[in-house]
Task: structure prediction
Amino acid sequence: MTWFVWALLSAFFAGITAILAKVGVAGVNSHLATAIRTVVVLLFTWAIALAVVPAGALGAISRRTWYFLALSGLATGLSWLCYFRALQLGEASQVAPVDKLSVVFAIALAAVFLHEHLTWQQWTGGGLILAGAILIALKF
Result:
């Protein structure tokens, strides 16, 4: 499968996640709900990794890779904590689109820190995502 198919699947499952999480955070502390979700993700991803990754691959990971994956994990944890709290306080149909502003942040950060050359399509698409998130978040 191509990167695009994987990205579409990611978006699809993220959409399902918003609905399931909104129901799941009802009546429970959002941080506890995030912790429960994280344990499930941890067990699920380790089961997949152990099933498909060759033995010894863990030892071949560089210190730099560990460092950046750990930072990415911390950022993911902070994102999930904020996301579950937002879902607890707001409507899923508003929270999820605002959460997708991560796309706009990723585009801008890729340009600044990774020195990726962005096309007018990427800037325009990011702008449309920003406009859409603002439009959905506002209640008239």
